[in-house]
Amino acid sequence: MDGIFGSTGVWFLIGAILVWFMQAGFAMVETGFTRAKNAGNIIMKNLLDFCLGTIVFVLLGAGLLMGEDALFGLVGIPNLGVFTDFANYDWSTFFFNLVFCATTATIVSGAMAERTKFLSYCIYSLVISAVVYPIEAHWVWGGGWLTQEILGVTYIDFAGSSLIHMVGGISSFIGALILGPRWGKYLDKDGKPTLERKKAVYVRAIPGHNLTVGALGVFILWFCWYGFNGAAASDVAQLAQILVVTTVATATSTISTMVYTWIKNKKPDVSMTLNGSLAGLVAVTAGCAVVDVVGAFFIGLIAGILVDVAVEVIDKKLHIDDPVGAIAVHGANGLWGTIACGLFSTSTGLFYTGNFSQLAVQLLGIVCIAAWTIVCMVALFQILKHTCGIRASRIEEIEGLDKHEHGLPSAYADFVAAPLAAEMIDPEGFTPAEPAGVTVVDTTVPAVRESSEAGAKLSKVVILTKQSKFEDLKQALGAIGVTGLTVTQVLGCGVQKGASEYYRGVKVDMDLLPKVKVEVVVSKVPVDEVVAAARKALYTGHIGDGKIFVYDVEDVVRVRTGESGYDALQDE
Question: Which alpha helices (H) appear in 191-235, and where do they start and end?
Fold first, then answer.
């Protein structure tokens, strides 16, 4: 088709470029929803799965997907046309399928994050891009057997709910199942970490380190999804319709997840709501060109609830550890979105025509695509497990894959204590002369002088309280003449062991809550006054007001003057 639309149009390629930029979105979601010690590893994986996938797709995958039909439409014949027919090759379709292929491979990264060997990740990404995705995508997008009429209708998957997302979700499920959970994710009946699913009794939430980065990833993905779903639009009217139903389904699923978690957990779950947005995007992908706004609404409504239910079943019941919810988002909702085409297609769907044919064909396609994926991925992961191994060692996992796989102390270098710079150390003990015109200060250390108030009692008061009450406490202590404070941000709990919250449907016992620790040493100011002032400033009558501890202090020495005891504490 000529113009900006169709498989040779400019919009087709712009949409494909947006699909490529989804790699950034996936990288941010996976990084934000996991721990900082693995951030560099996850970024590296999301970069490399596309780069490695490009090479093998050029060599083999493109031919299997786009080549001439063979074996009754089950596979394309690799022809290396990308090398032999430079002038006439279908470069637009090649690039379009290349970026979609990379998306399939990158989905698996999130479900197997934080404990997978980098080498094994590279290998299975290569296989997905070279064989697994190209063959099943050929059935629908390459002219294969699912493009033929069955029961008077053809299989619907306009943009890849089953071909990309369900395949990625199934691969994630198999990979996470064979790999096993992160260390400390599941506890046995004695409260000890276990990697055996049958011994897992308690589920421990492991929150991600940067929700802001995760949210940025979701916004990037939503933006790029307009290219993902709309790239193959045939004209402006169809493109606009696709953009509208994509937005309606996603907005509905986001609200659906928020309300569902709000009712269930008494508070709306932020990270799960972000997953709800992605669930709606995945679910509407298959039918975005054939459903109306009403259909999009119900697709999103169910997707938003399904993603939360699926996460909890996978985590709490099956004890399969998926840090980012890839199985629920892509697997469960890719499946749901493909089935929904048989229900909500305005021309062939059950709810619009009363005919079961489209639903039957959708189920047939799902079963065949799932069977192909399961066979390939079980074989692949078992081979990797018994050859180079899939899982990192326990010490590598505990200390972080950044350190052991990439020699990276931290992806956040400014937060790592920097070693003393070499140029600041004088190995010879040489002290340069003072520059001219500068007054030399006598640095002789004064002798320790005994306190003029010999025998004065010294007391240390330690106050633990809420961070929000610090300013009130500081002003109250200053008002009674306390001249020095030492303040530390700490984590702790009292006899109530903190309050329980929920993270991605898993109860989190917040037994270590953020607190502020204030330490003062007094002599002139009576301890009773300090305690009374602190209690007055901190008191609310509710649990969590804090504790005050009082200790005897043997001595205090002011370093600069040598004063000790009572005098060392006085304001000069």
Answer: 211-230
pTM of the model: 0.78
Question: In 10 A of CB 207, how many CB atoms?
Answer: 15
3-class secondary structure, 458: coil
Which two structure tokens, joined as six digits, stand for 292? 């109306």
Residues 6+ apart with CB under 8 A from 463: 473, 517, 518, 519, 520, 534, 538, 546, 547, 548, 549
What are the tens digits of pLDDT across the range 204-236?
A: 889 999 999 999 999 999 999 999 999 989 889
Q: Are 285 and 159 in contact (CB under 8 A)?
A: yes
User: What residue spans in the chain does CATH classification 1.10.3430.10 cover?
Assistant: 10-406
CB 325 within 8 A of CB 378: no
Q: Round to whole Å and give the CA distance between 186 and 200.
A: 5
**C-alpha span between 307 and 299 (Å, rounded):** 12
Higher pLDDT, 228 or 79: 228
Tell how far CA 288 is from the center of its chain: 26
Q: Residue 535 is inside which H or E element, if any?
A: helix 527-538
Which phi and psi (to 5°) does residue 498 adopt?
75, -175
Question: Cβ distance 278 to 329 under 8 Å?
Answer: yes
* β strands within 114-237, DSSP E: 186-187, 202-203
- Written as one letter, the residue type at 97 is N
Where exactly does CATH 3.30.70.120 map onto the chain?
A: 459-553
pLDDT tens-digit readout, 358-367? 999 999 999 9
**For 459-553, CATH number?**
3.30.70.120
Residue with tokens 């406490």: 473
What number does CATH give the domain 10-406?
A: 1.10.3430.10
With tokens 């199942």, the residue in question is: 177
Q: Say which amino acid occupies 454.
A: A
Two structure tokens written together for 114 = 């934080």
CA 167, CA 140: separation in Å to the nearest integer?
Answer: 14
